[in-house]
Amino acid sequence: MAQKKSASQQEGLSPESIGVKSVPTEELRANPHNPRLLFDKEPMDVLRSSIGKVGILVPLTVFKGRRQDFYTILDGQRRWMCAKDLGLKKVPVNQVAEPTVVQNIVTMFQIHKLREDWELMPTALKLEVLMRELKEKGDKRLAALTGLDQAVVSRCKKLLSYSPKYQDLMLDPDPSKRVKADFFIELYAVRNDRVVSKMPWFKKDKFTRRMLEKYRNPNSDLKSVTTFRVIKQHITNAKNAKKVPAITRKLEQYTFDDNLDIGHLEIQTALVRADVRKLLRSIGRLNDSISAIDVDEYFGEDDLWLALEQLAAEIRKKLKAADRRPNR
Question: Taking Cα atoms as reference points, which of 256, 273, 250 lies closest to residue 206?
């Protein structure tokens, strides 16, 4: 049975193979379209040690452009870098036909999709080139072409909404100084919230800068990027409780005052209203379940009837405390 071709293969986005051979290490060049821009020291040390012991077991994938006297790497830049460090004179390569820009990027996405994930920001930058070249923005379509999960495509597009100065923070070659993409992805839900965007004091760039300062401040309570989910929930609760002016004031205060913690955003009436909505959903599901009980079928289930009696008693107690009479 013929193996099913990927979306990129079906549409001619994968270059044709020419063959495997050994070529001088000095005749290879890094690919300017490689989505992998960051090469952290520790994993490089491990790979270099392995190659030093057993050599390069998997050939690099390369192509030679017209009127070029060198090979460009499609896959294997880390292996090539280690080979240079070790002084290897030749490396094994699988040469393919010169790809177009789109074929180049798509091929590298496809090659790496089953390996260790790239950092998300470099991936996003190459996805942006692909979107521009193909005039394609659909998450599902881009996922099919690149082999990336649709959720990863969506996350990449969120990162592309940030200005270059914030993108550069995710590209710092020093892992200890690099700001993780997760920070900006979690922040995205707050800074792009419709309620927040209409707040008179709000400016995206200034808000992003202040959240980053809080995140880096050891005395701030913004220690985890998931804190932005809590902020988002407070905003949603306030909106549903019609307390937008209150959350507008509180969020501004929290943003610019490092002495305030996340609890400052709580609006009691909004929290109560959120709890009520949860209770109403639970009561609705319970009511449906009780209504569906076949009395004859469950007649002998004493533990069920006892639990219902206890529930009825608790309901009557709450109704009495609220000065509400149950409908008879």
Answer: 256
Q: Is residue 287 packed enough to be buried (19+ CB in 10 Å), middle (13-18) or exposed (0-12)?
A: exposed
Nearest 5°: the CA angle 91, 92, 95 is 120
Alpha helices in 260-301 (DSSP H): 268-291
* Sign of the Cα pseudo-torsion (85, 90, 95, 101, in order): positive
For residues 152 and 127, the answer to whether their CB atoms sit within 8 Å is no
Does the CA dihedral 298-300-301-302 come out positive or negative?
Answer: positive
Q: Which amino acid is at 6?
A: S
How far apart CA 206 and CA 203 sit, in angstroms, is 5
Strand 90-96 relative to strand 60-63, pairing: parallel
Q: HSE (CB half, 13 Å, CA atoms) of 45? A: 3
317: left (phi over 0), alpha (psi -120 to 50) or beta: alpha
The stretches in the chain having pLDDT less than 50 are 1-3, 5, 8-10, 114
pTM > 0.70: no
| Number of C-beta neighbours around residue 39 at 10 A | 12
Sign for the pseudo-dihedral over CA of 206, 209, 211, 214: negative
pLDDT tens column, 9-51: 445 555 555 667 888 999 898 887 776 666 777 778 888 888 8
Long-range CB contact pairs, 98-103, < 8 A, 24+: 98/15, 98/63, 98/64, 98/65, 98/66, 99/15, 99/63, 99/74, 101/33, 101/129, 101/133, 102/13, 102/130, 102/133, 102/134, 103/12, 103/13, 103/14, 103/15
- Compute the half-sphere exposure of residue 318: CA atoms within 13 Å on the CB side of its CA: 6
